[in-house]
Write a structure and sequence with these properties.
The chain is mainly alpha-helical. The chain has four helices and two strands; from the N terminus they run αααββα. The protein has a two-stranded antiparallel ribbon with strand order 1-2.
């Protein structure tokens, strides 16, 4: 069972990834997050029903879910940025047919930057992330 379903994704206010392809991108995002947190388990409020030392499992579960949603959106937007020939499209004009491209490395760097930000924002506070990507 995925950690984040499309229903939870939508309830958290995200909307970029369509429901039909969401399981694929959610799984990819979860794999990226697990690599960064060295496969430590995500916080699940059902598994940790007692709040202690200001540790609210529901809050941390939401933070983990938001991190996965952010990464899923970054990965999905990277996939959408590719043109028909597989190169990333930076701009497109339909008047006289004009396309401009950016390098695939630039797109990967942007996606990696977004992924790193999400990991830093959503997985460091609860000490899941130890600075190893």
């Amino acid at each position: 069972m995925p950690y984040v379903t499309h229903e939870r994704y939508a309830s958290l206010g995200y909307s970029a990834v369509p429901q039909g392809v969401f399981p694929r991108w959610s799984a990819a995002a979860e794999n990226k997050a697990r690599q960064a947190i060295l496969n430590r388990p995500f916080i699940n409020p059902e598994d940790t029903p007692i709040a202690y030392n200001n540790f609210d499992p529901a809050y941390w579960s939401e933070q983990n879910a938001r991190g996965i949603c952010e990464i899923a959106e970054a990965l999905y937007s990277e996939n959408l940025s590719q043109g028909a020939d597989g190169l990333p499209v930076a701009s497109f004009s339909n008047q006289q047919y004009s396309e401009s491209y950016v390098s695939p490395a630039d797109v990967r760097k942007l996606t990696q930057s977004k992924t790193d930000k999400a990991i830093g924002m959503y997985f460091t506070q609860n000490q899941l992330y130890r600075g190893v990507c």
